[in-house]
Amino acid sequence: MMMLRRVHGFRCRRREGERGSAAVELAMWTPVMGLFIVAIIFGGRVAVGHQAVQTAAADAARAASIARTASSARAAARTYAAATLANEGLACVTTNVAVDVSAFSAPVGTPGVVRATVVCDVAVGDLGLPGVRGTMRVEATMASPLDTYRQRR
Q: Of 21, 106, 137, 145, which residue is the least packed, with the fewest Cβ within 10 Å?
């Protein structure tokens, strides 16, 4: 026997055998939607990590390029990279800053470039996404030119 009822002025037919099917559909789709949401969060965390590491590498390269000596360039690059990662709110499990200051040994008048590479292991294991290990390595290298006619030591 079919029952008719009015919903917002329209007639709806409900079959007796479909009772509770919405609950079953909800139970089936809830884990899929949960995984979808976690995957979006994962993608966002990786994108923010890439952006923060690229910014840190650019800041480190710029700080190194305006330093007067190779040793102060290395120190400035590490300091600026750490400060930028902290300002961006990225908590790296491990961080490594490598600076190529070989252009400091070139004579004045020779164009040179300082390169800074920042490597950050971003924690993603807390999301519980299947197949994703504990950290994801994010790496960026940026370059900044040395002033061609400035004294180098």
A: 21
> DSSP letters along 5-72, please?
EEETTEEEEE-GGGTTHHHHHHHHHHHHHHHHHHHHHHHHHHHHHHHHHHHHHHHHHHHHHT-SSHHH
**In this structure, are residues 101 and 70 in contact, taking their beta carbons and an 8 Å threshold?**
yes
Write out pLDDT tens, residues 3-31. 555 556 666 565 666 666 777 888 888 88
Share of the chain above pLDDT 90, in %: 41
The residues facing 14 across adjacent strands are 3
Q: In 10 A of CB 40, how many CB atoms? A: 10
SS3 (DSSP) at 144: strand
Q: List, for residues 117-139, the tens digit of each pLDDT value.
A: 999 998 877 766 666 677 889 99
Amino acid at 93: V
Write the DSSP string, 81-125: HHHHHHHHT--EEEEEEEEE-GGGGSPTTS--EEEEEEEEEEE-G
